[in-house]
Amino acid sequence: MLGNNLPTKRDVVALYQKNVITRMRIYDANQEALQALGGSNIEVTVGVPNEILQKLASNQAEANAWVEKNIKNYSNVNFKYIVVANEFRSQFLLGAMQNLLNAVSTFGLKNKVKVTTAIDTTLLGESNPPSKGAFRADASGFITPIAKFLVANGSPLLVNMYPYKAYIDSKGKFSLDYALFKSPGVVLKDGALGYQNLFDAMIDTFHWALEKVGAGSLEIVVSGTGWPTSGGNATTLENQKSYVLNLINHVKGTQGTPKKPGKSIETYIFAMFDENQKNPVSEKFWGLFTPNKQIKYPINFA
Q1: Residue 162: enclosing H or E segment and its boundaries?
Q2: Residue 17, C-beta contacts closer than 8 angstroms, at least 6 positions apart
Q3: Residue 220, beta-bridge partner list
């Protein structure tokens, strides 16, 4: 939503419906967006801002009020996840999640909406090969109780995962084809497992890391992934097209990953629109659509 030239919220919902996009992630409980989503049947993942965690963790009534205002009062919105904070380490995170789960239960919504959080790859220490995957020593005390909370409550862990950024940061260690799902064969051997793309390797690194903290059964949802079309190294329309189309084919199939084969991978593509108020410049061009609602290339979302 960080643009001054974007369509109205109602136009966005109509654009989702026109393109058969059935799930949406928003980063806070934007009231205008929630009103526009009413009756649409789009599955909505709604964020809880980092800055209110302490208030929610320290006061059950505050958590109840948040859920009542933003979830219960929108009975015609199809909520899927409440994402408590985004890529944010805080002593208050687990308490806020617990209180929001209590609130969801109080309002009889526990079977309708899951309470979770979204992390990123900065919590990992070792990550290559995937079987060496482990959380950083200073992060494992933070993530372990959260992972066990999610397992106990049947919620997945959301992970923002960007092979584009890993490719750039690797300074030539990974090939562009490996990042774009274009490698013709196995690139990375890890024991008995073979990796043909960076996306699978990144997901399985988290599977291994979670196993090491006693949460190997935890499902991972990829809550943000994509490729920019301008503003940096390897940022072309053709590269985004390759990444996005290959990603969609990969995750909606049932091959899964080498470590966890046999099921589709729930995945959210970042982002719907280019956003001209983001910085640095490479953050402005992640959209699949331009602000005037034109898709950059044909995509079959169905």
Answers
A1: none
A2: 40, 42
A3: 157
Using a 10 angstrom Cβ sphere, with 0-12 exposed, 13-18 middle and 19 or more buried, the burial of residue 108 is exposed
The per-residue pLDDT of the chain, averaged, comes to 96
User: Of 126, 275, 144, nearest to 205 (Cα)?
Assistant: 126
Backbone φ/ψ region at 172: left (φ over 0), alpha (ψ -120 to 50), beta: left
Q: What is the pTM of this model?
A: 0.96
Tokens standing for 63?
């958590």
Structure tokens at 252: 């909606």
Among 86, 253, 70, 98, residue whose Cα is nearest residue 157: 86
CA angle 187, 188, 194 (to 5 degrees): 95
Q: Copy the structure tokens of residue 203.
A: 């997901």
Three-state DSSP class for residue 67: helix
Contact at 8 Å (CB) between 273 and 287? yes
Q: How far apart are CA 121 and CA 302, in angstroms?
A: 29
pLDDT in tens, 125-152: 988 999 999 999 999 999 999 999 999 9
Tens digits of per-residue pLDDT, 211-264?
A: 999 999 999 999 999 999 999 999 999 999 999 999 999 999 889 999 999 989
Report the chain's C-alpha Rg in angstroms: 19
